[in-house]
Here is the input.
Amino acid sequence: MVERGAPLRFDLAVIAAAIGQSHSGALVLDIGCGDGALMAALERDAACDARGIEIDAGLVERCVARGLSVVQGDANIDLAEYPDKAYDFAVLSQTLQTATRPDLMLDELLRVGERAFVSFPNFAHWRTRTALMFGGRMPVTSALPVSWYETQNIHHVTIDDFRDLAKEKNAVIERSWFFAKERAISPVGANWRAEFAVFQLSR
Amino acid sequence: MNTAVPRNSYAIPHDLPLDSGQPLVGARIAYETYGNLAQDRSNAVLICHALTGDQYVASEHPMTAKPGWWDRMVGPGKPIDTNRFHVICANVIGSCMGSTGPASEASDGRPHAMRFPVITIRDMVRGIVALLDGLGIERLHGVVGGSMGGMQALSLAANWPERAGRVLVIASTARHSAQNIAFHEVGRQAIMADPAWAEGDYYAREARPDNGLAVARMAAHITYLSEEGLTRKFGRRLQDRDATSFSFDADFQVESYLRYQGSGFTRRFDANSYLYITRAMDYFDLAQEHGGKLANAFARSRNARFCIVSFDTDWLYPTSESRHIVKALNATGNRVSFVELSAPNGHDSFLLPHEQLDRVVHGFLNG
Here is the structure.
């Protein structure tokens, strides 16, 4: 029994829609699943079998309490214990920039999942650029709301950086989505214009 | 120790095969139930008790008159809600609260004593499965166990994978470590070194091996607590005195507490049962039962959902042991949740009030 929750965050909504459109019943691993909003939606609307990893015990408890299967752990370490290609999809939403080694994390995503979804805040958005250029300080914006000394984002990344990394890792970008002010925008000039990006990849 | 007459007792209508090869003949299982069984028999939840536990999970203990050992968890409106679930809790074989154990009469009319066969965790579960057969319950909604109860839950999931839909394992392990075995051996040696133990043949005698059993309990009790918990509860505070007595009286509160725990235990527990049950726990190694690989143990349990819970101050069955189980379940693609809860009181935390634990238990069984 999974309750109807608040509407999904914009990046999770496109991931849920992408999986639901053509892969209902898929086995999904949500890495850094938080309170399990995406997992719950996938199980409710797309008959998926969703599993999660989450580092925060309080969030894991909330997931278990809503009937989800979530393992408390550090994805940087624990993903290694998951078998190859055991999942149809591996999801990493707004977590890549917090990984100790985002490049290795991407490898792991594509190892455990047939396909991967990655979403992250784009550090090259024009507002971030102007804040750094004219303010001379690490930007604090709506997309990156936390000061440099307490942010969990230890590897800021841009859309073009990520495209390069995917290429380097021989990952195919199958689909991509871009957002500004939580609304979808066209891919033209996305590295300037998008606050957030979602990529669907395979290898 | 006195023996109590159990309220409900099931006579297993066949010999119970045991891992040792020696079957248990004429075994009885004492049990308690709470809440109504649904017409389709789909709402049964089995609770497995720990080493010195019993079937009185949520009802007054007939010998100590204390509330059930998990009274705070099981009952109407509680995390394991008896308004919704039919809860079954059975005394394990080898124990002394009504199920067949070393203190029970053998066919010659005398107690089995050390003639009782050495049993395993899987044997305990065989006994419980026989009870479930007798009660007509083919598939449990869930099985829940802490500590040794968790071992039984894992054993049920591994060996009777179709019998439980949800498997909740709290503060437990899939194998006894060298340290676990070592502490148990101290306890057993304390009992067997007591002259009143008399090779286990003390039932007709005046004296019982109470001193040995009390020491065993004292040693074990330390492993159930955390250093932080002991320090907070007792520190170096003295017991009913202003200065140390330069004697071997219980000067310190912690000594007095352990002595109280030890002597109280001898009034409700049989020394031979303690030997047999600790042995069963020491023999427990779920991987070894399944070709040396824990993942193999769960290969047939795909239809069950698992939830593993550990406590950060539990050094008896530490979080690493729970993670070991989770890793095996992940390797076989089983549905598993795992959470390490924070609690100051070590292994015993699973029996103590803990709101997060309540929510996890309730959510896992109802979700």
Remarks:
- Chain B has two domains: 8-176+284-366, 180-277.
- Residues 180-277 of chain B form a domain with the Rna Polymerase Sigma Factor; Chain: A fold (CATH 1.10.1740.110).
- Chain B has a mean pLDDT of 96.
